[in-house]
Amino acid sequence: MGKRLLVVAGLMAVVSGVASADVSTVFDAQGTLTDGAVLGGTMTIDTTTGVLTSADLTLTSPNAGIFSTVDTTGYFSAGDEYLTFVGETTDTTINALRLGLLTTSLVGFTGGNFASLDHLSPSTPSYTSDLRDSSGAEIDLVSGSLAEAPEIDAASAGSALTLLLGGLALLRSRERIR
After folding, report:
1. CB proximity list for 46: less than 8 A, separation 6 or greater
2. Which of 96, 101, 110, 169 has the greatest number of CB atoms lying within 10 Å of its CB?
3. d(CA 162, CA 8)
4. Domain count, the chain
């Protein structure tokens, strides 16, 4: 019984250590383009260093596609926005989402709007996020935002793991008694 307790305690320490070591935050993306295509998916940002580490974005028809190649990110001082270009491939002349966040930095970022027709940049009201397709057409974002995705509470996950392991140990001990 003592060994099981040590194993459970060790697993709890590992689970809680992994959960607290992660400095990246996942954000849910949503939006609508002028042609009716709907933007969805996630963007992962290391909010400590202010770096977009990955993107997994989708558009519905008429521009259906998966956009996961982060090409360019950085602060655009003329527009006072943080720009990120995410393409379907490394060739951003194919189809690329050009998204401007209405923030100057991703350090400490907690979510916000994309520059869009509904949320114009105060510094550059003529700029809106868009999809640039392979023909060179720019399809504007009507509205869109990034919101922090719901997080799994490490304590709840640890409690669930403890219950699961405890239940398995109880079942095993009952089998031995028979």
Report:
1. 23, 24, 25, 53, 106
2. 101
3. 7
4. 1
pLDDT, tens digit, 9 for 90 and up, residues 15-59: 444 444 448 999 999 999 999 999 999 999 999 999 999 999 999
In a domain, 154, yes or no: no
Angle at 70 between CA 100 and CA 43, to 5 degrees: 65
**CA distance readout (Å), 30 to 27, 56, 74:** 10, 12, 21
Task: Name the token pair of 1.
Answer: 């019984």
Q: What is the span of the domain harbouring residue 57?
A: 22-148
At 175, the amino acid letter reads E
User: Which tokens sit at 106?
Assistant: 């991703």
Question: Has residue 94 been placed in a domain?
Answer: yes
Residues 140 and 36: their CA atoms lie apart, in Å, by 10
**83 within domain boundaries:** yes
The set of residues, in sequence order, having a beta carbon less than 8 Å from that of 24 and lying 6+ positions away, is 44, 45, 46, 47, 53
- φ, ψ (nearest 5 deg) of residue 11: -65, -40
SS3 158: helix
Question: What pLDDT digit, counting tens, does each position of 102-125 carry?
Answer: 998 999 999 999 999 999 877 777
What is d(CA 20, CA 22) in angstroms, rounded to the nearest whole number? 6
Domain annotation covers residue 159 = no
